[in-house]
């Protein structure tokens, strides 16, 4: 039982004790009155000369004696209840103190574990930094050694940074509610062609995307970013069924999407869900990836396209994920001032979205 339950029990027992003590006080007062009345009636019986009056007073005194006896019995029962409730109250108060102590100890253990993890993480980062510096020093010494025995200077080309790989899945199988996803991708590609670090980004577009396209893309491309544009909802995403004669949607729940994202040795860093009401899928996906962008309500083609275009333009400018989202939100607000803010950015607890940069040029 936790401290809250013990506190509730103490309040209940205190109320019960107060009620019994009030009853006890009333019974004691009644006993005192009955004794006084019995004594008064006996004195009146002694003082009167009338036999009948004396007998009447004696009967009244005996009735008052009976009231005293009954009151004393109730007093005895109530005193027993007071003792019993007081004992239970004392035990409950001791249990509350023990619960407080246990909860404080548990909180201390959690805090100590958190601090130990932080220290272990710092130590690991420091060790990695030390190993990297040692490797750099060893490399510099080796270069120096090699250059001392040759008459030619060998210039080594600096390693090129890894390109950001984006798997862009679009799906609009519903003929009665088509989406402008192809235009969205076209605008994103134009924005990337004008980005400062366009040579460091590769976008792989999969139109009419099926669940198998997602799996193949994870295996073949090893994307850092997986972007889905299409129909969605709080329970999942609507992929294409790949049928030419009977196109229809293939609904995949967020739990299944999360399992697919976890079933790889090279999980993505970011998942973008440019589809309506997809914020409901954030929590399951955060078990698989560090950062998720989703929409909190229905989103139109214009809002979705503007957000994607400005977001990837900022990413191509080596902005962090947090700042890229904020830039895109602001540009959508300027272009569509009546539109509500729909973009939700969620990250794992240990991720700083304003420090997480997906495109890192060498200079």
Secondary-structure arrangement, i.e. CATH architecture of the largest domain: 3-Layer(aba) Sandwich
SSE pattern: HHEHEHEEEHEHEHHE
**Helix proportion of residues, in percent?**
55-70%
Give the rounded overall mean pLDDT: 89
Number of domains: 2
In total, the number of strands is 8
CATH topology of the largest domain: Rossmann fold
Shape verdict:
elongated
Going across the major beta sheet, what is the strand order?
Answer: 2-1-3-6-7-8
Rg from C-alpha positions?
A: 40 Å
Please outline what is shown here:
By secondary structure, this protein is α/β, with parallel strands linked by helices. Helix content is 58%, strand content 12%.
Describe the structure.
This protein is of the alpha/beta class and about 375 residues long. It folds into two domains: about 5-115; about 165-345, Rossmann fold (3-Layer(aba) Sandwich). The chain contains eight helices and eight strands. The chain has helices at about 5-45, 50-145, 180-195, 210-220, 255-260, 280-285, 300-315, 320-335; strands spanning about 165-170, 200-205, 225-230, 235-240, 250-255, 270-275, 290-295, 345. A six-stranded mixed beta sheet has the order 2-1-3-6-7-8, with helices on both faces. Strands 4-5 form a two-stranded antiparallel sheet. Strand 1, helix 3 (about 180-195) and strand 2 (about 200-205) form a beta-alpha-beta unit. Helix 3 (about 180-195) runs parallel beside helix 7 and helix 7 crosses helix 8 (about 320-335). The protein is elongated, with a radius of gyration of 40 Å. The chain starts with a helix and ends in a 16-residue tail after the last strand. The mean pLDDT is about 90.
